[in-house]
Specification:
Strand order of the largest sheet: 6-3-7-8-9-10-11-15-14-13-12
Helix content: 25-40%
Largest sheet: 11 strands, mixed
Distance between the termini: 52 Å
Number of helices: 18
Length: 493
């Protein structure tokens, strides 16, 4: 046992004790966060504009602060980015996390001195929870891959600007810095394909124990290693024991990745975003991710079918129900207020509060009123893979409203690494599962408005080519699972 793994265990025990303390008092914890946020931001521009001095309760907050997205708060963000102080939060932010916007171009999300610990401690506490539960700390003695955006930052009006993953790269603890891979220089490479090749070169002969990244891009890294060596990953990296991921559901990729690795390994799911680090998988035995309630983020939950209403219901943590889809709205110590981050969550536990990400508010298929969400298509695909075999590289679902013949349908574009023996049965399983989950979809099928789902097979590199065509080939790009149009579908074809 190395010194790092030896010291990690008592730290994991202490972190677990702290986590149990705040997670057992969730409502109280969130109320404390709410009070501190309002108090500290009372004299900011936003606080004055929205009468923070009069806000004493969540009901007061709802009256004064509407739910808004980036575009609706853009004037405040622009003043912050211009270097003005005390706009959304006291002082100036330390960083602006640059993200791709769909309607407003690039978005610049502030990260402050108060909010940076949330981004850093989320991933750290996820690993410590794993160590405490499993007793496995040996991975911290090996080499660890953190696939990130470039850590090179620009300076804009006295504020550092860069991708969140690149910003976070600067906060890897010193005791892990010597274990971290790839090198700083490699992480600075912008071209993703060149970057992955260089990561392969740097890591091929190292003792890799932990690898983190979006599943589809880690799979690309593994495929290059397997092609070069002719060996499964377990033979190249025999001590590789833990995969850490976020951004997308791992389950559709699991079969192919485990086949490439050559065995099953433990995994930890994270829920990070530029707006905050919201949740992490705190146990290997229960479903969902622990919602982080004590780290400067106040959460509101809007029933998914109300998010576009003028006055939607805004629930706090003590009012949510299991199994319902909620749009996630946050206010935090980076200066976001009533901010709709665009993600939907479902609670799978209330003791403690654990969530799964069930989809994106803007990513759905509802050309006929069915409002199919990501969780439903992912579940249906996993059921089809379980019953019929096969391995999936990636997939996308879009409506076919005007087919040349017959009724309209949902078209599933799937890139198979291993094709199921009976593709018709595979499609039938998907359609059955979709009908069981979504009553509106079932009514459309049984009412002969739609015909059952259609599988369209696309080439193994179709999704990589799509990302390349959009100038978004890279470790942080996530293809939408669903669309209500055929913009992605037509390019895949």
């Amino acid at each position: 046992m190395g010194i790092r793994s030896f010291l990690a265990k008592p730290l994991a025990w202490w972190t677990n004790r702290q986590t149990k303390a705040w997670s057992s008092r969730s409502v109280e914890t969130q109320q404390k966060v709410f009070t501190e946020l309002i108090s500290k931001a009372e004299n900011t521009v936003f606080g004055n504009d929205h009468k923070f001095g009069t806000i004493k309760s969540h009901a007061d907050f709802v009256k004064e602060v509407p739910i808004r997205d980036y575009e609706e708060l853009k004037s405040y963000f622009e003043r912050t980015a211009a270097g003005e102080q005390n706009v959304l939060w006291p002082g100036k932010p330390l960083y602006l996390a640059k993200t791709s916007g769909t309607t407003s171009g690039a978005k610049y999300i502030p990260i402050t001195r108060d909010s940076i610990p949330n981004h850093i401690n989320g991933a750290k506490n996820a690993l410590l929870s794993y160590i405490h539960e499993t007793g496995n700390a040996s991975f911290v003695d090996g080499k660890l891959i953190f696939l990130s955006g470039s850590p090179e930052l620009e300076m804009k009006n006295g504020i550092h600007v860069g991708r969140l993953s690149g910003i976070s790269n600067h906060f890897v603890p010193n005791y892990l810095r010597t274990n971290q891979m790839p090198s700083y220089e490699t992480n600075c490479i912008d071209d993703w394909e060149t970057k992955v090749e260089t990561v392969v070169n740097e890591t091929l002969n190292e003792r890799m124990t932990l690898i983190s990244g979006i599943p589809s891009w880690v799979q690309m890294y593994f495929d290059k290693i397997k092609k070069r060596t002719g060996k499964p990953i377990k033979d190249v990296f025999p001590d590789f024991s833990l995969f850490v991921y976020g951004g997308v559901n791992f389950e559709p990729y699991r079969a192919k990745m485990e086949a490439t690795i050559g065995n099953k390994i433990d995994s930890i799911e994270l829920f990070p975003a530029s707006e905050g680090f919201f949740a992490y998988q705190d146990t290997q035995t229960e479903k969902g991710m622990l919602l982080i309630l004590n780290a400067g983020i106040f959460y509101e939950f809007v029933p998914a079918d109300e998010i576009h209403h003028d006055n939607p219901t805004r629930l706090t943590i003590g009012e949510v129900e299991l199994g319902a889809n909620y749009a996630l709205v946050v206010s935090n110590n980076a200066g976001l207020w009533g901010y709709n981050i665009g993600d939907m969550v479902q609670f799978v536990s209330k003791s403690p509060y654990r969530v799964i990400v069930s989809g994106r508010v803007k990513h759905y298929t509802s050309a006929f009123g069915e409002h199919v969400i990501a969780k439903e298509v992912e579940y249906a695909l996993n059921a089809a893979l379980s019953e019929n075999g096969g391995e999936v590289i990636d997939f996308h679902v879009a409506p076919q409203v005007n087919p040349e013949t017959g009724l309209p349908y949902h078209e599933w574009f799937i890139s198979f690494a291993k094709r199921p023996e009976n593709i018709e049965q595979f499609a039938a399983t998907i359609d059955r599962e979709m009908q069981e989950q979504n009553i509106y979809y079932k009514d459309l099928i049984t009412g002969n408005i739609l015909r059952p789902a259609v599988i369209t097979e696309v080439a193994e590199n179709a999704f990589i080519n799509y990302a390349r065509s959009q100038g978004k080939l890279g470790g942080q790009f996530k293809l939408p699972r669903l669309a209500n149009d055929r913009k992605v579908a037509d390019l895949l074809i």
